[in-house]
Amino acid sequence: MPTDRKRRKSDRQNVAELRTRLRESASFPRQVIAEIQRAARTGIYDIRGFGAKRRIPTFDDLLFLGASMSRYPLEGYREKCATNVTLGTRYANNPIELKIPVTVAGMSFGALSAPAKEALGRGATIAGTSTTTGDGGMTPEEREHSKILVYQLLPSRYGMNPDDLRRADAIEVVVGQGAKPGGGGMLLGQKISARVAKMRDLPAGIDQRSACRHPDWTGPDDLKIKIQELREITEWEKPIYVKIGAARTYYDTALAVKAGADVVVLDGMQGGTAATQDVFIEHVGIPTMPALRQAVEALQELDMHRKVQLIVSGGIRTGADVAKALAMGADAVSIGVAALIALGDNAPELEDDYNEIGSSAGYYDDWHEGRDPTGISTQDDALAARFDPVLGGRRLANYLRVLTLETQTLARANGKSHVHSLEPEDLVALTIEAAAMAKVPLAGTDWIPGHAKF
Amino acid sequence: MAVEFDLRQKSTRELNAALHRLNGSGDTGTWRIRNPHGLHTLAVGVDAPLTIDIEGHVGYYCAGMNKYARITIHGNAGPGVAENMMSGVVRVTGSASQYAGATAHGGLLVIEGDASSRCGISMKGVDIVVQGVVGHMSAFMAQSGRLVVCGNAGDALGDSLYEARVYVRGTVASLGADCVEKPMKDKHKQELEGLMNEAGITGADAAEFRRFGSARTLYNFNVDNADAY
Fold first, then answer.
1. What is the CATH number of the domain that holds A177?
2. Contact residues, chain A, for B79 at CB < 8 Å
3. B51 and chain A: CB distance < 8 Å anywhere?
4. What is the dihedral angle through the alpha carbons of B8, B14, B15, B19, rounded to the nearest 10 degrees?
5. Residue A196 C-alpha, separation from nearest chain B C-alpha, in angstroms
6. Backbone phi, then psi, for B181, in 5-degree steps?
């Protein structure tokens, strides 16, 4: 008769042995199995927020060379490294002047609570940059708290009106976004509160699916006239941006320039969304890094680089990302998901609250459900009241300043007195994929895949 | 005395700038604009109760985002006439191209001839009265307001519409997803008569119209509607 102690020991051995014999399928790992089970249970595709979660080539696969014998660095604290950006120099009578090369991307009131929108405005204003409306119109809160506010013209035209056009500092015609190039907006019934419904002229509580195409223009020839209309209404004062999701970026950038854009906003596939089908987020569009290179090539070919400014977004997290994007030819970058995280999204202090809604800090992406314990991605008044827009704004400003300081650090290390002086020649790639996509050489070689030498 | 403006002598920019100088003024003056010759973006962004007569055909987006003004186009209108209008009255004595009254939030758009496809697309409170026919996909995703069609309607009328009401006197080639015929009650006849009076349309009897609106089955996701998605 085995003793209890012996039996427990043998059970442990059996379990340990079993574990080593269990083999997870590469084709059907647990997350895939769970999704099939979820689909079979519900009959509807998975909708979520956040951006692409799959592993893709990113700016992390690039390195700066720095300075040494052949290049002079700048002194870290004594020699100035400027960060200012001017947007809209092509046609606008009143171009936008930013203190830093980082802007806050369009996120709607509806997707976000009113205090969260206010915080974005506060943070951007403290840091000397712009923030952007979204698919739902302009709220008085965000206008009041944003020194520089970009007003989006989207296919839905929710809340679009000439008074807000005139109140805006720039106008962004949204053709697409990186999370879903070719997809329209989505806001589920849980977030269509009475105020959101009124602003969008929709019945409260419906599952809103916005149009993916603009209602009154098709193609760049029409868009050119649409942009002319916007300029006429606003006396040619305001820069007109055209935002595209990263798809056929070379051609799309060239066509945006042809249509008369002052600024092209390019959003890569890592770009965030408040609510989109998971299959769309993960399988449509190209990463930010290769898209950026294609956009810059299109601008250079048209002799429009630095004349039509380029803002790139999608997966910008650190000053290293900012500096690399600028080195590849962007004039500025834009942040969305990172800005929400700076406000407090996915905060570990709220782990218990996240657990209660079936998630965990660091994983939470069900922004479409409106149950956000931080009060950011919700229209529930009680949840929204938890969010402090002054503190949120301060945190965003801090984060924007860190991004800027990090960018300056890298620019100085490469001997640049302005962040715009960073250039592709300052970069090398760590992987063959990144070398091919960014068209910079593999580190330690002069090899750019697909690039024959002359 | 009407203000005379000749687009052979002055530019579109000069016209719009001159009109915008009166924005917010409450000016009720009359403007006569000659020789439009199909130019785009004429009289856009007006924000005053002016009476504006445009003597000829216009291109894209004429009277776009209008507030308060009564703008009459004595001719045909290109795409997007009165797009995103907020208030006022825009009248086209001829026919209108695609997306007439697109996304308009208020006011009245009268088209005395025919309107092409996507008339009233994403309309958000405007009233549109068309004396002739409308093309396909009219009132697509129409949110609110009323579309009155005295002639026939093309394919996929009212596809995915929300709370807008659509009245058609002639035939309807086909209805779009979630658009259904609804009973014409007395209050609808009264509403229709009021709209036709306001539009100055005579010779059409409200009793001859049918009413269409949303079946509201696509308002919330439902697996059983997958065939309609």
1. 3.20.20.70
2. 216-217, 222
3. no
4. -160
5. 14
6. -80, 140
- Name residue A97's beta-bridge partners: A86
Kindly tell me the sign of the dihedral angle through the C-alpha atoms of A6, A8, A13, A17: positive
Among the partner residues B80, B118, B122, nearest to A156 by beta-carbon distance: B122
CA distance B100 to A390: 44
Instruction: Provide long-range contacts, Cβ within 8 A and 24+ apart, for B140-146.
Output: B140/A215, B140/B176, B141/A211, B141/A215, B142/B166, B143/A200, B143/A201, B143/A202, B144/A201, B145/B104, B145/B106, B145/B120, B146/B191, B146/B195
pTM, to two decimals:
0.95
Asked if A237 has any chain B CB less than 8 Å from its own CB, the reply is no
d(CA B84, CA A70): 59
- Could you tell me the residue range of the domain that residue A419 belongs to? 48-438
Q: How many domains in chain A?
A: 1
Measure the CA–CA gap between A373 and A347, rounded to whole angstroms: 9
Asked whether residue A148 is domain-assigned, the answer is yes
Residue A3's pLDDT is 66
Q: Is A18 within a domain?
A: no
Counting one residue from chain A and one from chain B, the pairs whose CB atoms sit within 8 A come to 100
Full pLDDT tens readout for chain A, 454 residues: 556 777 777 777 787 777 778 999 999 999 999 999 999 999 889 999 999 999 999 999 999 999 988 888 998 878 999 999 999 999 999 999 999 999 999 999 999 999 999 999 999 999 999 999 999 999 999 999 999 999 999 999 999 999 999 999 999 999 999 999 999 888 888 899 999 999 999 999 888 888 899 999 999 999 999 999 999 999 999 999 999 999 999 999 999 999 999 999 999 999 999 999 999 999 999 999 999 999 999 999 999 999 999 999 999 999 999 999 999 999 999 999 999 999 999 999 999 999 999 999 999 999 999 999 999 999 999 999 999 999 999 999 999 999 999 999 999 999 999 999 999 999 999 999 999 999 999 999 999 998 876 5
List of residues 6+ apart from A308 with CB closer than 8 A = A90, A257, A261, A262, A263, A264, A299
Q: Which residue of B64, B103, B220 is in closest CB contact with A206?
A: B220
CB-CB contact of A154 with A137 (8 Å): no
Please provide the size of chain B in residues.
Answer: 229
- For residues A329 and A423, give the distance between their C-alpha atoms in angstroms, rounded to a whole number: 7
In a domain, A29, yes or no: no
Distance of alpha carbon B62 from alpha carbon B64, whole angstroms: 5
Tell how strand B108-111 and strand A208-209 pair up: unpaired
Structural domains in chain B, sorted by start: 3-216 (2.160.20.60)
Please report whether residue A427 resides in a domain.
yes
How many whole angstroms from its chain centre is CA A330?
Answer: 14
